Each structure stands twice: as structure tokens, then as C-alpha cells.
Amino acid sequence: MSNNFERNFSEQENIRREKLNNLIEKGRDPFVENEFDRSHSLNELIEKFDSFTKEELQEKTDIIVSVAGRIRLFREAGKKAIFANIQDQNSSIQIYVRQDELGEEEFEYFRNLDLGDIIGIQGIMMKTDHGELTIRVKNAKLLTKALKPLPDKHLGIADIEEKYRRRYVDLIINPESKQVFIDRTKIIRTMQSILDSKGYMEVETPILQSVRGGASAKPFVTHYNALDNEFVLRIATELHLKRCIVGGFDGVYEIGRIFRNEGISTRHNPEFTSVELYVAYKNMDFLMDLCEELFRECSLAVRGTTKINYGGHDLDLAKPFKRWHMVDAIKEVCGVDFWQDMTYIEACEIAKQKNVKVEKHHFSVGHIINLFFEEFVEEKIIEPTFIWGHPKEISPLSKLNAKDSRFTDRFELFIINREYANAFAELNNPIDQYERFVDQIKEAAAGNDEANDMDIDFIEALEYGMPPTGGIGIGIDRMVMLLTNSESIKDVLLFPQMKPRGN
């Protein structure tokens, strides 16, 4: 039988494996180590000792520090001294190794180390003649042998696809990439802190669901063996979170993974992270104010300012976000007035005149209004803008506007052509909700593979009574892109899905 996993190593990889074998023969196998006691992280070390002068550190030779990290630079200073740099999660520091302090055998042991090896050292602090904080090594131990060489420090990872496939290498050699993910965690923690401080409870809802709902999207389908039934990966957390409001919670939210079986681009990933929040007795205006607060505070948490630059545009998130009705936006941008009553045929004729393509499942004026927004308005939005008043046909879970029942109390947040949030005054009339699900089933039959399913259990939940409720969903990945100035969604996902090699 052929071995499909047979591997061929480069010359450098073979040399490193030979070095490992020599170490093992000498009883110095680095892979048997299971701990190393560090006295400081490198950040802590720098914060503690960098303010001292060279002369002051020369008087602190009794302070032994113990640190660990990966070798990133390695240069010999003559035959009997070596300078190197090691890095840990947040920092790097120079180390200085001398033969007369380690002894010939240990110095040769250190000299045979490679870039990428992970070492633990003990030593004293010093500063060079140039004032660089340095650890003067007294003992060194190889903790992990790197069997693959790192990419060239200056060239980096030449193939952008490899940057995403081998994120672990990208994190080693690009501190900017690592900072993005540190900032991502700060953004999520800031959101949690704000929502928790307002008394809202973080909950978890099922990822595997028997009915798709809560959004218009094509799901991933799987077979649940134990239940012998088809299930979908959730396309939203909405319907289960609203069941919690029915159950008596005043406010609940969930930060979690969402799955939509759709295309991959710089803006879209089929597996992404959102936060959804539902608050009893609150309306759309409350959600707009809260949304502004979340964006403002998350920007302050990671950037220290509300002023950002993204895609060449300067924005200040401290300014009030524009609030623009969808129909007003369309009228202002392209001159078409959808406030006027019109038939579907009349709307189709206007679409034809404006070269807007109407698909067969777009069978209402409301669908055509949304097409006009996507075609003419969305690309014009730069400043943070709440687009509200979506047609009821594209908002099956939203309450109708009290003044004009053609539209709903729903908004989406757009910044520089991209949607960042979607929010409703939630529909809590079970009779109306049932009828809208029926309309969705008709859309599915007409060819819309993103239509919602009928969720009878959710209808029954509403029949027990859900108070007036406001709900909002925010895309975490896009927010992180905005606040870290990242061009692609793959830049803010630690391990984005990629096509298999060779495909």
C-alpha cells in the first residue's frame, strides 16, 4: 500500500532533525521538558528594569531573572560571545551569552541552537553601551526544538494564502497580526462589560437547530444521527433568544458563531461571530443609542480614541450617527419616490427604466425598494448611518411601523458601504408572525433559498406573550476589521476556512 502521507524534507529540515538526534543521544532531548518556571514575562521584565541606567544595573547582579521565549535573532560577536533576541506573547528582549560564563560545552550547546527554537534562560539584567536592555545569560536550556525554519524576517510569508493557512507562523513573525487578535478579544470583553453593566444576561443557545430562522440565509444542513433527522447549523441566534424574553428575562445576549452556506470574500465568511441582544420594553431608538455606545467604547478600548481611518476615510465615532429612512435615501440618491402608492407592475417598470434586475422571487414592491437601496444607496454611505424603515416583505420578524404599515421598525447600520448591525422592534403578535412565516414559505416555493422556515414552536412561544422588545445583532468580525484597520475578514479570523491545497 502506498503511503499518501510520505514527507520530503528540505536540507535545513534534515539538518535540524540531525541536531535533534544528536541532542537525544547526549541525553538532552528537549521534548521531555514539561515546564519551566518563569520569574517574569518579557513585558514585566522591561517595565521593571528599563528605567535603570547601565551603572545602576551593574550593582544589581544579585537579582536573577528567569524567562522563556522563541529565538528570533541570532548573531555571533566573535568566537566567544553571542547576541540573540527572544520573544514571548507580548514582547522581545536581547540576550547576551559568553563562553567564559557558560563554559565551553554549554556555550557550544547554545551556539548549535536555531532560529525558532524555544529556550528558557536564567541571568542578570544589564544594558549595552548603546543603552539596550539585555539579559546576561548564566544558564540556558532548550525547551522545544523547531524542526521547521521560520520564513525570512524581512520577506515574511510571500504567499498570502499561506498566511491564513499557517496562521501560527504569521503570529510568530508578524506582531501586527498578533495585535489584531489581542484587540479582537478586547472588543468582545468591552461589549460584555457594557452589556453586563446594564443588567443583561449572557446565555447560550443551540447551534444545531431543527428549523432555520432568525435571518434570510442559506443554511448548512447535516443529519443528526441520534434523532434520525435533518438539522441545520444556526443562521442566527434570534428565535431562541426571544424565547428567553418570553420566559421572563428582561435582557439577554449571546456572542457566538453563526453559519451561512454562502460565498467567501474579503467581507464575508460562511462561519462568523455575532452578538445578538434582546431587551424587553425597549424600542428602535434605544437600540440606535446603544449601538453607538458599543462602537464608541470598543474603539476607545483598542485605539484610545474614537477617531479612526478605514479604507482611506477618516471617521469620528463620537459624532451622532445619521438616521435615514430607506425610502428617503433612495429618493435623495436616485430620484425615485417609493412613498407613493404603486402596484408591483408599476414598480417593475421603474426598475426596468433604472436597469435594476428583479428576480422571480422578488414579487412585491417591498422587495424592489430593497433592490433600489442595494443598487444605488449602499455604495454611497461613508459616515456611520442607520438606515431604517425596511419594507415588511424583507423583515419577517420585525414590527410594522405604526404610521405606515408598508414598512417596519427596523434599522441596519452602514459604515463605508458595509453593514455592521441589524435591529428590530421585534414582532410579538403571534397571528401576524404566523402569516409572515407563511409568506416566507411562498417565497421559498418561488425560488428564494434564503427564506425562513415555519417555526411553530416559536409561534406558540409568542402565544404565551412576549413583551414589546428591541433586538439587535452586530457582526463582530466586521467591527474588528473596522477598528483594527484590517482589509479582509480573513485578517481578523484566527483560522479562516480555506480551499484544500491543490484545489
From TrEMBL:
<keyword id="KW-0963">Cytoplasm</keyword>
<keyword id="KW-0436">Ligase</keyword>
<dbReference type="GO" id="GO:0006430">
    <property type="term" value="P:lysyl-tRNA aminoacylation"/>
</dbReference>
<dbReference type="Pfam" id="PF00152">
    <property type="entry name" value="tRNA-synt_2"/>
</dbReference>
<dbReference type="GO" id="GO:0000049">
    <property type="term" value="F:tRNA binding"/>
</dbReference>
<protein>
    <recommendedName>
        <fullName>Lysine--tRNA ligase</fullName>
        <ecNumber>6.1.1.6</ecNumber>
    </recommendedName>
</protein>
<feature type="binding site">
    <location>
        <position position="419"/>
    </location>
    <ligand>
        <name>Mg(2+) 2</name>
    </ligand>
</feature>
<feature type="domain" description="Aminoacyl-transfer RNA synthetases class-II family profile">
    <location>
        <begin position="184"/>
        <end position="500"/>
    </location>
</feature>
<keyword id="KW-0648">Protein biosynthesis</keyword>
<dbReference type="GO" id="GO:0000287">
    <property type="term" value="F:magnesium ion binding"/>
</dbReference>
<dbReference type="InterPro" id="IPR045864">
    <property type="entry name" value="aa-tRNA-synth_II/BPL/LPL"/>
</dbReference>
<comment type="subunit">
    <text>Homodimer.</text>
</comment>
<comment type="similarity">
    <text>Belongs to the class-II aminoacyl-tRNA synthetase family.</text>
</comment>
<keyword id="KW-0067">ATP-binding</keyword>
<dbReference type="InterPro" id="IPR004365">
    <property type="entry name" value="NA-bd_OB_tRNA"/>
</dbReference>
<feature type="binding site">
    <location>
        <position position="412"/>
    </location>
    <ligand>
        <name>Mg(2+) 1</name>
    </ligand>
</feature>
<feature type="binding site">
    <location>
        <position position="419"/>
    </location>
    <ligand>
        <name>Mg(2+) 1</name>
    </ligand>
</feature>
<dbReference type="GO" id="GO:0005524">
    <property type="term" value="F:ATP binding"/>
</dbReference>
<dbReference type="InterPro" id="IPR012340">
    <property type="entry name" value="NA-bd_OB-fold"/>
</dbReference>
<keyword id="KW-0460">Magnesium</keyword>
<keyword id="KW-0030">Aminoacyl-tRNA synthetase</keyword>
<keyword id="KW-0547">Nucleotide-binding</keyword>
<dbReference type="GO" id="GO:0004824">
    <property type="term" value="F:lysine-tRNA ligase activity"/>
</dbReference>
<keyword id="KW-0479">Metal-binding</keyword>
<dbReference type="Pfam" id="PF01336">
    <property type="entry name" value="tRNA_anti-codon"/>
</dbReference>
<dbReference type="InterPro" id="IPR018149">
    <property type="entry name" value="Lys-tRNA-synth_II_C"/>
</dbReference>
<dbReference type="InterPro" id="IPR004364">
    <property type="entry name" value="Aa-tRNA-synt_II"/>
</dbReference>
<dbReference type="InterPro" id="IPR002313">
    <property type="entry name" value="Lys-tRNA-ligase_II"/>
</dbReference>
<dbReference type="InterPro" id="IPR044136">
    <property type="entry name" value="Lys-tRNA-ligase_II_N"/>
</dbReference>
<dbReference type="GO" id="GO:0005829">
    <property type="term" value="C:cytosol"/>
</dbReference>
<dbReference type="InterPro" id="IPR006195">
    <property type="entry name" value="aa-tRNA-synth_II"/>
</dbReference>
